Amino acid sequence: MSEIQKLTSLSSNQLKLASEVLSNAFREDPVFSKLIPNDKERHKTLFKIFKFQIKYCLKHGVVLSTSNLKGISLWFPPKNAFISIWKSIKSGSLSLIFKIKWKNLHILRKNDDFCEDLHKKLVTTPHWYLSTIGIDPKHQGKGIGRRMLSFMINQIARDHKTIFLETNSKRNVIFYKHFGFRNLHKVLPPRPNTNHRSRIRCTIKKN
Predict the structure, then answer these.
(1) Percent share of the chain, pLDDT over 90
(2) The pLDDT value given to residue 199
């Protein structure tokens, strides 16, 4: 079993590995696949997005991982449950303009804005936000996600706070329900410039 640990810093090589793990974990995600259809382009874009998100979370949240970095989860405490534009800029978000194709960045930004607006409407009390949890595809099915989730739920339970998350997968909804999450809302956010709608499910856990 891989030991679960909280990360406070990552070397450049470790950051690269962690970003690769998350980009591989979400490579076939139904929403990302619709937003960025080209597989190679999607993987490259996700790698850069997750690299920024991990760096941001190291400063303003809790990065949880296995000792071998095969599983990563990003958690934000109540005071940082919503992304701060200023903190985001200080963490290097502006550099993404030069690293990611504008079309892809614009599409993902639209999707993020939609999700954050919904997040604010659905949860109005102090809460923890599970932004991302991903397992290296080669190591999925080994209970890594279950152990990471259990670890943080036990930690957060001491403060009697709610945990909020979003997922795009029916299988994940079932998985989270085993931990006491309930389906709070279903929505079909529109994909920019098309009539296609990608499914996203929002779930919430109340302590």
Answers:
(1) 50
(2) 40
Q: Is 79 exposed, middle or buried (0-12, 13-18, 19+ CB in 10 A)?
A: exposed
Q: How many angstroms separate the CA atoms of 30 and 62, rounded?
A: 26
User: What is the tens place of the pLDDT at every residue in 94-139?
Assistant: 888 889 988 888 888 888 888 898 889 888 999 999 999 999 999 9
Domains and CATH numbers, the chain: 4-205 (3.40.630.30)
**Which pair of tokens denotes residue 202?**
């929002």
How would you class 205 by CB atoms within 10 Å of its CB: exposed for 0-12, middle for 13-18, buried for 19 or more?
buried
Buried b / exposed e across 84-115, counting CB within 10 Å, b at 16+? eeeebeebebeebeeebeeebbebbebbeeeb
- At residue 129, what is the residue type? Y
Backbone angles phi, psi at 112, to 5 degrees: -65, -40
Reported as a single tens digit per residue, the pLDDT across 164-177 is: 998 887 788 888 88
